[in-house]
Structures are given as C-alpha cells and as structure tokens.
Design a protein that fits this description.
binds inosinic acid, 3 helices, globular, 179 residues, 6-stranded mixed β-sheet
C-alpha cells in the first residue's frame, strides 16, 4: 500500500509547489517589509503543510496561530454551515493578520472566517490561499496571495484530504471523489 493509492492524476509536483511557495513567501516578505507584528493564522487541518512551508519562506518576524474549522455537508461539498472547532488562544486586536487557507472552493468557509475575525479588530486582515477553484464560487472573497487557480476537480495531498486520507502525499493530486 502507498499513501497515494486511489489517486488519479498529478496536478502539481512537490517541486512545483515548493517553487510557488517560495515566490509567495518572497511576495509577502516584500509587502510587509518593516513589519514586526505579522500573525500567520493557519486554518486547520488542510493548511498545516502549506503553512509550515510558507512560514519558512517568509523572512520576517512572525507568530503562528491555529484555528480549526469544520464545514458540515458531504465529504466533498461545503454547506456553508461552518463551525469553529478550535479557536485562537491569543487576541488578534491591533495585529496584521494573514489567514492561510488550503483551498477556496465555494468561498463559504473563508467568508465566514473573515466575518468572524473582523469582529476581533485586527489592524489588517489578508488571505493567502494555496488553491482557488473559481468554477464553484458561491461567495466572493478577496484572495491577496494565491498559489494556483485550478479546475473543478477534487484535489488531495500536501495537507488536503478526502475522508482524512492523503494529507501526507507530497504532491497535489486529483482523485475521483464523486459522492
Ligand atoms: P469552501 O467553503 O467551499 O470554500 O471550502 C473550503 C474547504 O473545503 C477547504 O478548506 C477544504 O477543507 C475543503 N475542500 C474544498 N475543495 C477541496 C478539494 O478539492 N480537496 C480537499 N478539500 C477541499
């Protein structure tokens, strides 16, 4: 058995992802040059691999916070009924906050998160997403830093799962997740 059993096609190799993450890190470092208070907010679970790599590509002082969300629906479709299952442990008031998301699909999760976090009065609130699937957009959200735009396919690996599987596959791969 291998971690990628059941996957169908390669979308981005680990090398392609690493190159793009380095570019995103450089862009974020440039845009925030001089800042000494960036809070990188990792949205669990899907962003844990991306966020770990992105943080190391950002050459600025920063702190990392974690927040876990769950969106109820089928295993592949967000219902928009988003719940925080693990909240931040420290306030973000007056801080420059960068939300790190694995994928923006319908946009429902991120728009919920943006609404919630704005009420906590950060100095600024930006979004960095690894993937964007515009074909399925239901809610518009501004993505300040984006890794890749993809077709309407179900993608796993590099932290993204299907039924909690595949998060440890180093590449981004497509699976048949029709349910
Ligand atoms: P949204 O609320 O529809 O934008 O969905 C966001 C969440 O759905 C992501 O953070 C993922 O956890 C999950 N998701 C959406 N599309 C995919 C995919 O292709 N692969 C893995 N997870 C996905």
């Amino acid at each position: 058995m291998s971690a990628r059993d059941g996957t169908e096609k390669m979308l981005f190799t680990a090398e392609q992802i690493a190159a793009r993450v380095r570019e995103l890190g450089a862009e974020i470092s440039r845009d925030h040059a001089g800042s000494d208070s960036l809070v990188v907010l990792c949205v669990l679970k899907g962003s844990f691999v991306f966020c770990a790599d992105l943080c190391r590509a950002i050459d600025l002082p920063l702190r990392v916070e974690f927040l876990a969300v769950q969106s109820y629906g089928s295993s592949t479709k967000s219902s928009g009924d988003v719940q925080i299952t693990q909240d931040l442990t420290r306030p973000i008031e007056g801080e420059h906050v960068l939300i790190v998301e694995d994928i923006v699909d319908t946009g429902l999760t991120l728009s919920f998160l943006l609404g919630l976090l704005k009420t906590r009065n950060p100095k600024s609130l930006e979004v960095c997403a690894l993937l964007h699937k515009p074909a399925r957009k239901k809610r518009h959200v501004d993505i300040d830093y984006l890794g890749f735009t993809i077709e309407d396919e179900f993608v796993v690996g590099y932290g993204l799962d299907h039924g909690q599987k595949y998060r440890n596959v180093p590449d981004l791969v497509v699976i048949d997740a029709s349910d």
